[in-house]
Write a structure and sequence with these properties.
two-stranded antiparallel ribbon, about 210 residues, mainly alpha, about 10% strand
Length: about 210
């Protein structure tokens, strides 16, 4: 059973074209030789890029989504309770990616767009309570955008593991699911207001409403 291990350098191999014929093949027996280009990506550079791109450029790109999800929609749905509102936003957030997925912009690179969309909805569903909690406790949608950008940038690190087979892919997915479920448990255990459904630090849109 293969184990996930960090790669010393990620090799991206691409067949470019047929090489020149060998000297013995000039007489008519031409045998093309593939030319292979290998690019080695530094693990240190990749991790460093993720750490600074996520909270900066990644946050700016995610801010447009977060203004809609955690800036407006969360405030409107909080009367339903923290968990119900967060999970509902997670489903809407995932389905929002449907047009791009069906137009060919795969998120998880499944051949079937339905499978890719379902994986996207599952991901946003798992992430949504954590982002909602960050938004509520920080009092600003910018904090959620920074975390959102960091999550997007962290996905680059998945390319640093080899071999890239279905078993290792499933292992990494399972690890991510367990981490997010553990975050759910921590929020429920440490912040009892989320269990009671009382949004003490609710976004501005929910202020003045009965809990």
């Amino acid at each position: 059973m293969a184990k996930v291990r960090p790669a010393q350098g990620v090799a991206l191999e691409k067949l470019l074209r047929a090489g020149p014929p060998t000297p013995s093949g000039i007489g008519g027996n031409l045998e093309p030789r593939p030319v292979v280009m290998t690019v080695h990506v530094s693990i240190r550079d990749q991790i460093g890029r993720s750490l600074w791109v996520g909270p900066s450029l990644g946050a700016l790109l995610a801010l447009g989504e977060e203004i809609g999800w955690r800036g407006y929609l969360l405030g409107e749905l909080l009367p339903l309770g923290f968990w119900r509102s967060s999970l509902l936003i997670g489903v809407v957030w995932g389905l929002w990616h449907a047009p791009g997925i069906f137009l060919g912009s795969r998120v998880y690179f499944f051949a079937d767009p339905i499978a890719d969309l379902l994986a996207q909805v599952a991901t946003t569903l798992l992430l949504s309570p954590l982002l909602s909690w960050i938004r509520i406790r920080s009092g600003t949608v910018l904090a959620a955008a920074i975390f959102h950008g960091g999550v997007n940038a962290a996905t680059w690190l998945l390319g640093l593991y080899e071999p890239r087979d279905s078993w290792n892919g499933a292992t990494m997915v399972l690890a991510g699911v367990l981490v997010l479920l553990a975050a759910w448990a921590a929020i429920a255990f440490l912040d009892r207001s989320t269990v009671r459904g009382v949004p003490r630090a609710a976004p501005e849109a929910s202020q003045g409403r009965a809990p």
